[in-house]
Amino acid sequence: MPKIIIVGGSSEIGNAIANELQKKFPGKFSEIVKISTSLTEPDSIYWNPRNSTGVIDGLKQVNLTKDDHVLISLGIMHDINSRKAIEEKIEAIANLYHVNLVVPVLALNYFWDKLEGGHIILLSSVAAFPVLDSNFVYGSSQQALDSMARYLQRTYKTNRPTISIVRSGYVQTKLNLGRKPTLFAQTTKQVAESVVKKIDKPVVWTPKIFFFVSALLRCFKPLRFIANRMVVKSKT
C-alpha cells in the first residue's frame, strides 16, 4: 500500500495537503512519513540537508513502494531587496538558495529516479512568474526549481512518477510571520483543497486567478511596479 512522504515534514502546507489526500482517498495510503530536521514523532525521519550527502542519506532512509506520493515542501523567505544588502548578506543568500533550490532539486531528482509510479507534488510559488525586483532572490530560486520540474514532466513518461507543480501565492503560515497578507492570500486548508482537487494537473495555480495575474505582470511593466510596491509593503 502506498504512503505519503513529506520532504520538509514540519511544513504546514505539506501537512495540510497530506491530510487532505487521506481525507479524499480514505484507505489508499498506509501512513504519512515526515522527513525533517526538527520533528521527533515516531513516523518522522531525521536528515541533515546542509550538504548533498546529508540530503541523499536522509532520503535513503525511506522504504519506497511503487505508488508512493511525495510532497516536497521546503522554503525560507528573506528581506534582501538591494545590491548593498546582497553584498552584506552573501552567506544568507547562499543559505536561501541551498534550502529553496539545491535541496528540493536533489529530492525531486532522487524520487523521480527511484519511484516507478506514484506522484510527486512540488511546492513552487507565483513569485517566480514573473520574478519581481523586490523579491528576486526568492523568486529566482523558485523559478529555477519550477523549470527543473517542468523539464522532468516533458521527459520519460513511463516507469516514472507524475509531477504536479503547485504555484501558490501568499499562504498564512509561520513562514510568513511578521508579513502583512498580500492580495488573494489563502489558508493552508484552501491550498490543500485546490491541490488535491486538481491532483491530475501538471501545474496547479492557487488561487487560480494568479494564472491571469502572472500573465498580466509579464506583459505590462507598470503593473510590475505596483506589484513590487505591494511586496515591499507586506514586509514592513
Tell me what you see in this structure.
- With 236 residues, the chain is α/β, with parallel strands linked by helices.
- The protein has a single domain, classed as NAD(P)-binding Rossmann-like Domain (Rossmann fold).
- Helix content is 45%, strand content 14%.
- The protein has eight helices and seven strands.
- Helix 1 crosses helix 6, helix 2 runs parallel beside helix 4 and helix 7 (209-219) crosses helix 8.
- The radius of gyration is 17 Å and the shape is globular.
Briefly summarize what is shown:
The chain is an alpha/beta fold and 236 residues long.
- What is the alpha-carbon Rg in Å? 17 Å
- Content-based structural category: alpha/beta
The number of strands is 7
State the CATH topology: Rossmann fold
> Beta-sheet strand percentage?
5-15%
**Uncertain runs:** none
The CATH class turns out to be Alpha Beta
Whole-number total of structural domains? 1
* Shape field: globular
The main pleated sheet reads as: 7 strands, parallel
How are the strands ordered across the major sheet? 3-2-1-4-5-6-7
Termini separation comes to: 47 Å
Mean pLDDT: 88
